[in-house]
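lol forgot to send this yesterday, sorry. struct tokens for the thing we talked abt
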């Protein structure tokens, strides 16, 4: 999706291991990711007693090395006092437990996100492999590809440090005083169950996490734990809510560049999903599996991780249409689901 009409006042992202100041007491660091989406942003807030870290990168050697460089360099003035994880995805909560333990820092997360993160670290071995194998088969993935997509299981727990066993809950509507500013927490569903964002009206700053990204459409996925879920309804509702925040904000996303043009971007994402819903209906004029819908919705050269996201995303659109009565699901004798327009 072209990011037209958005303004990017900070075109040069920080080098790995560096944190650049974009407002007094507010710094931007960036960590590498081993995916096609190759980086995640971290926002650092400075107070007299120390740093608050908002998100922390995936838990791997390269990210830990970049943290070491930051801790010894641009952050050396203070200890890390507070670690925030906006949502349970490993590129956001990955190093949180490691930092919390190292600095005896306080750990903040929305409740559903913390529960999900804790739960997923326990989900491994045969049970998880069976769940995901059944999931991909049900949606039309060829038998020889299912094994490759599922792998050996336990991916989540390998990508995060130990999720702390206690946390401080980030609550929708609460305000936290950080970096000399009042930040209002707003939580949203759709991309994750209860993702936290931070809005500072007085200084025109909005830390949007993954809920609003400038260059990519946040993944909205149905997962095997909640196969009839309608996360797209939650995501679309979050767009309506974020639109009310208004256009005076500098949006600080976790992927891509800081940008201005919040309502423009909300409009683009809404349009993207509306056109995708229409395309799903068109493709389902004859019965189609989710994999067949993916072939009509996404580029052909997706890697296995992207294919997994694509299946979840296509299903999010299909489930939304099923709930609206525009589409129905039929399951054949082999347990494969197909979707057809009503
Ligand atoms: Zn995410």
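and heres what i got for the seq, position by position
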């Amino acid at each position: 999706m072209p990011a037209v009409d958005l303004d990017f006042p900070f075109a040069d992202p920080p080098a790995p291991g560096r944190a650049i100041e974009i407002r007094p007491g507010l710094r931007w660091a960036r960590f590498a990711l081993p995916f096609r989406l190759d980086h995640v942003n971290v926002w650092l807030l400075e107070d007299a007693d120390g740093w608050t870290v908002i998100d922390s990168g995936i838990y791997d050697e390269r990210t830990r090395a970049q943290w070491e460089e930051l801790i010894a360099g641009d952050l050396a003035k203070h200890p890390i006092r507070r670690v925030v994880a906006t949502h349970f995805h490993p590129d956001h909560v990955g190093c949180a437990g490691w930092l919390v333990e190292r600095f005896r820092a306080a750990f903040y997360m929305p409740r559903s996100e913390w529960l999900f993160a804790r739960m997923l670290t326990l989900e491994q071995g045969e049970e998880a492999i069976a769940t995901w194998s059944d999931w991909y088969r049900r949606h039309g993935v060829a038998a020889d590809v299912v094994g490759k997509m599922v792998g050996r299981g336990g991916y989540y727990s390998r990508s995060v440090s130990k999720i702390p066993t206690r946390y401080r809950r980030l609550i929708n509507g609460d305000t936290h005083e950080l970096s000399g500013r009042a930040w209002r927490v707003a939580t949203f569903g759709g991309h994750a169950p209860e993702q936290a964002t931070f809005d500072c009206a007085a200084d025109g700053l909005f830390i949007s996490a993954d809920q609003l990204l400038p260059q990519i459409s946040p993944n909205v996925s149905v997962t095997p734990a909640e196969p009839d879920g309608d996360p797209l309804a939650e995501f679309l509702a979050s767009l309506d809510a974020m639109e009310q925040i208004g256009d005076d904000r500098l949006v600080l996303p976790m992927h891509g560049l800081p940008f201005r043009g919040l309502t423009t971007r909300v409009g683009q994402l809404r349009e993207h999903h509306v056109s995708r819903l229409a395309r799903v209906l068109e493709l389902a004029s004859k019965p189609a599996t989710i994999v067949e819908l993916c072939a009509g919705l996404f580029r052909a050269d997706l890697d296995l991780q992207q294919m997994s996201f694509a299946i979840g995303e296509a299903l999010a659109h299909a489930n939304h249409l099923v709930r609206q009565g525009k589409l129905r699901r039929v399951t054949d004798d082999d347990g494969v689901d197909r979707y057809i327009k009503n």
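The CA atoms of residues 294 and 307 lie 8 Å apart. anyway ping me if u want another try
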